[in-house]
Amino acid sequence: MKKIAILGSTGSIGQSTLSICESFPERYEVVSLAAGRNLDVAFAQCLRWKPRVVSLATEELAAALAARLREAGIDETEVVYGSKGAVRVATLHEVDFVVSAIVGVAGLEATYAAVCAGKTIGLANKECLVAAGELILAAAQKHKVALLPIDSEHNAVHQCLRGGRAAEVKQIWLTASGGPFRNTPAEEFEKITPAQALKHPTWVMGQRITIDSATMMNKGFEIIEACRLFSLPPDRIRVTIHPQSTVHSLVEFIDGSILAQISVTDMRLPILYALSYPERVDIHIAASALAFDLGALNHLDFSQPDQVRFPCLRLAYEAAESGPAACIALNAADEVAVAAFLQGTIPFLGIPRTIEKVLQATPCNAPASIQEVLVADEAARAYAHSLIALHVAH
Ligand code: MG
Question: What is the distance in A from the centroid of ligand 1 to the CA of 50?
Answer without folding.
Answer: 31
